[in-house]
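Open question from group meeting: does this chain pack into something compact, or does most of it stay loose? Before anyone orders reagents, we agreed to write out a predicted structure and look at it together. Recording both the input and the output here so the notebook holds the full record.
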Amino acid sequence: MNAQTIRSKYIEFLKNKGHVEIPRAPLVPLNDPSTLFIGSGMQQLIPYLLGETHPEGQRLVNSQTCIRVQDMEEVGDNSHTTFFEMLGNWSLGDYFKAEQISMVSEFLFDEVGLDPNKIFVTCYRGNKEFGIDPDQEAIDCWKSEFTKRGIEAKVVDIGSADQGAVSGMDGGRIFLYDGNENWWSRGGNEENTPIGEPCGPDSEIFYDFGDEFHDYEKWGEPHPASDSPRFMEIGNSVFMAYRRTETGVEELPSKNIDFGGGLERIAAAAINSPDFFKISLLWPIVQTIENLSGKKYESHTESMRVIADHLRGAAFLAVDGVVPSNKEQGYVMRRLMRRAIRFAFELGIEQGMCAKVAPTIIDLYKDDYPEVAEKAEEIINVLKREENLFRETLRKGLHEFAKRTKDGLTGEEIFMLHDTYGFPAELSLEEAYKQGIDLDGNWREAFDKQMSEQRERSKTAGAGVFKGGLADHSTETTRLHTAHHLLLRALKDELGDHVVQRGSNITAERLRIDFSHPEKVTRDILDKVEAVVNEKIEEDLPVIRSEMPREKAEELKAEHEFGAKYPDTVSVYSVGPKDATQDDPKHENAYSIEFCGGPHVSQTSELAANGKRFKITKEEASSAGVRRIKAVLQ
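C-alpha cells returned:
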C-alpha cells in the first residue's frame, strides 16, 4: 500500500467513524507568533483543545503538511525529513481511550495491513506525586487488540529511557514509561507542563524493523523509546484528561483525544523499509534525480535524499505563498533550496534542476491537494528563479573566494563564504585543492564551531518559544488579543479598506500586527487610531463568539488573514454594538467582526483593568507594502 492510498484510506476510514474532514492549515501559521511554520498536525487545533467549540463538531480528521526546520542538518540519513505529513484525528469531549485505541488498531492492522507482531506500544506508568495510577485502561485496551490478533501482550514497566537501555525489552509488547516519554503537554513533557494548561498521558505506537538495525554498543539494550533506528514511532494517541495546577493536576470536565500519525512513517512501515526515501511520495523524486545526474541512489544516497526532501519542502512553501528571501520563512526556503542545489553540484547537475524535478513533485500531490495543481506554474517559476539566482551567487562567491584566499584559507573564512555569500564549504575546499591554497590547520574546528552556533540560531527560529496559537491563554495575552481586533478595525477606518492583516504576534507583554499599507503611518494618524481604540474600550462593548457558514461571515465582511483557507463553518468574534447579546449578536452593527478561534475578553472594559490604556509604541516597515505596529496596555 503506497502513501497516497494510506492517506486517502485514513480520511475515509475516520469519516466513516463520524469524523468531519477539515482542510490542512497553510505551512505558515495564522495568528501564531511562536513558530515560523506549522510543525505538528495539532497546531491549528490548539484553541479547541483548550476549550473553544469547533465549528465542525467534536470529531475531526485531516492530513496536515508540516515543516520542522530543526531537522534540516539531519536530512541525509534514512529517516529525517524537513517536510512531512501528519495524519490526525481528534475527539473534542466525545470518545476517549477505548474507542481511540480500537480505531487506530483497526486502521493500522486491518486497513493498512501492518503485521501486529512488529508493533510495540507504550503507555504511562503513572505518577504518585500527581496521584495518577498507571494507565490501566489503555493497557487493557491494547491487550485486547493484540489478543484479537493472536498475540499475548506482556506488560513491562521500564520506567525511563535510560533504564530501558540497561534492562531491555524482557519479552514485552506493552511498555510503561515515565512522564518524559508518555506524557503530553505544550511544555513537552510532564515536568515542563505550564500551570493552567491541559495535559495528559499518551500511548505511542512503534514499528520494529528488526534486530539487524540495532547497534548494541551504541544504543545499549533495545527498547521502543530508544534512539535506535530499529524502532520507529508511527503514531501517538494523547489522552488529554488533566489540567496542571500549582500542586499537581486536576481532571478536565471535558476530555479530548489528539492522535497524530506520520504518513511517511506509516508508509515506510507498510513496505517494511526503514528508508523513508523508498516510499511512493519520495522515491519518484529520487528517480528523477537519478535520471538527471546519471548516477545511482545507492552510491550517492545522502545527496539525493537532501535534494528530494528539500525541493519537496520548498515546493509546498511556494504553494502557501512563501518566496525565498533573507527573512523568516523566506530565509528557510532559501536555505532549503541552496542546500539542494549545493548537493546537486556534487552529482554533476549544474543547471535546470528545478525545472525538471518540480513537475515530479507536483504530480505526486496534485490529485490530493488541488492547490498544488492550481499553482503548478508558480511553483516551478519560484524554484527556477531561486536556482538561477543561486548559481549567480556561486559565481560571485568564486570571485570573493579569490579575493580572500591569497594568504591561505581559515575555517572562519570558509564559514563566512558559506553564510554571507552562499558559497558552500565543500566548494571552498575543492577550489583550495584545485588552486593549491593552504588550509589553516584548525580550519575544521573553527568552521564547525561557527556552524554549530548557526544551527542553534536556526533551531530557535524554527522551534519558537512555545507551540500553538497565541503565546499563551493568560489574561494579559487574551486582553491584547481583543485589543488587536479593535486596532485592526481602527486602522481600516483611518487608512482605508486596502488594509488587510498580514500577520500577528501576541504575547502577554505586547501585540504586533502586520498589515498591508504602502507607506509609513504618521504619528498623527497613530494618535487618532490609539484614541479610537481607547474609546471603544471605555464604551464597554460586548465581545461575542458565533459560529456561522463561511459565506455568511464573508457577506458580513468579517476580517480574516490574507490568503488563509477556512472550513465551511467558521468561528467569528464580533465587538459591539452596546446592546448585542449572545442570543442576538447584531453582527451587522458590530464595530469589529473577524474570523477567529479566540480566546477574548467578554467586555472591552476588561482591557482597562488597573487603569491601563492602549498605547501604540512603534510603527515600522515589515516588508514591501506591509507595515508593522507594536502596542501595549499600560
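Observations to bring back to the group:
Residues 475-633 form a domain with the Threonyl-tRNA Synthetase; Chain A, domain 2 fold (CATH 3.30.980.10).
The longest strand covers residues 231-244.
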